[in-house]
Amino acid sequence: MKDTADQEIIDIGDLDVEAFNEFAVEQGWSDGMPLYMPTEAKVATFVDTVRGDNRPFSAVPPRQVVPTIQALAANAVMAGCKPAYFPVVTAALRGVLDADYNLHGTLATTHSCAPMIMVSGPIRKELDINCGSNCFGQGWQANATIGRALGLVLLNVAGAKPGEMDRSTQGNPAKFTFCFGENEEENPWKPYHVQRGFAPTDSIVTVMSGEGPHNLNDHGSTTGDGLLTTFANSMATPGANTIYGKGPSFVIIGPEHAATLARDGYTIESIQDELFKRSRVHASRISKENQETYVSTGHKPDGDWFAIARSPQDIHVTVAGGPGKHSAFIPSFGGTTVASVRIAR
Q: 3-state secondary structure string, 66-124?
């Protein structure tokens, strides 16, 4: 197998799966869950799926290691990916290597952020990526292992070892895996990747360093206005990094809520505008000490109100999930961006 840190071949002999996992833990390669053995043959099969993408990878902070494609493939094998998933993993890595994503900062922070991966376009169906019911949860190999593979790359190549480089105070279950697909089939508006300027036929990975999804439960509202009231008041929290980092966030609208909003004439743009205005946090809900901190870092209030984003466009909106009157809010680390990358095959 290929050592994902030193980029050398390591002969592990005839270890069985249990012995390999004990060895991997000793080497610091494990995320705590069982790993698949990255044999040379398996790694070569994965590498063959990305032969059409010859772009070099930049150095991965904080260790500043320039990864070989074999090292990346080894992590995807260990995560349990199928070979066909590997182009999604490499595209997600290119996304987090965007300079404005601030990979070093998002890995070294005490915040609980994890890399969110959203997949758009035809590849969702080809790979059976869950876009509907329980799309943030268990039960789909593609969702589980694509997100896990990126996490292993950040552990083994970037060096984000918990308690060492990864200084998160409490962590977040999304650090194990956080991958889902857009529900384009039940989206009454343009799919997210089309909003970003890509063609409908493009397959795209979008990444953001975010918290886990926060449920937006509204079974009572029968109007778009009522739903936006619930959404905005749930987003208006003094405890999220967005209140002072003014970073991006995602609102993932469930199909039933999306149908109500579209019926009442709301567009993506008008939803963003309304949520930006309504999600401001009144100073009375923020301690005086924190207000001083926000102002000292450049987040000046509008009168007595603190915005949770720099502009309406920093609130990214799309549709995912299945039946039920639930949506989700995903605040970001703050000092990060949203990056979308075409999946090259």
A: CCCHHHHHHHHHHHCCCHHHHHHHHHHHHHHCCHHHCHHHHHHCCCCCEEEEEEECCHH
* Side-chain-facing half-sphere of 135: CA atoms under 13 Å: 31
- Asked if residue 337 lies in contact with residue 248, where contact means CB atoms within 8 angstroms, the answer is yes
Backbone torsions φ then ψ of 290, nearest 5 degrees: -70, -35
- Averaged pLDDT of the chain: 94
Query: Strand 339-342 and strand 281-282: pairing?
Result: unpaired
Residue 144 host element (H or E): helix 141-153
CB-based contact 337:101 (threshold 8 Å):
yes
CB 76, CB 85: distance < 8 Å? yes
Contact 232, 279 (CB under 8 A): yes
Q: How do residues 19-76 score in pLDDT, each as one tens digit?
A: 999 999 999 999 999 999 999 999 999 999 999 888 999 999 999 999 999 999 999 9
Side-chain-side CA neighbours of 180 within 13 Å: the count stands at 26
Predicted confidence at residue 8, as pLDDT, reads 62
Give CA torsion, residues 29, 35, 38, 41, to 10 deg.
-170
DSSP run (H or E) holding 262: helix 255-263
- Measured between alpha carbons, how far is 235 from 322 in angstroms, rounded to an integer? 21
Spatial distance between the Cα atoms of 240 and 248, rounded to a whole number of angstroms? 11
Amino acid in position 188: P
Q: What is the 8-class DSSP label of residue 184?
A: G
212: three-class secondary structure by DSSP: coil
Longest dimension (CA), the chain: 68
Residue 224: which H helix or E strand, with range?
helix 224-235
How does pLDDT run across 293-340, given as a tens digit for each residue?
Answer: 888 888 888 999 999 999 999 999 999 999 999 999 999 999 899 999
Report the candidate in 242, 233, 195 with the shortest Cα–Cα distance to residue 340: 195
Tokens read off for 250: 């995602």
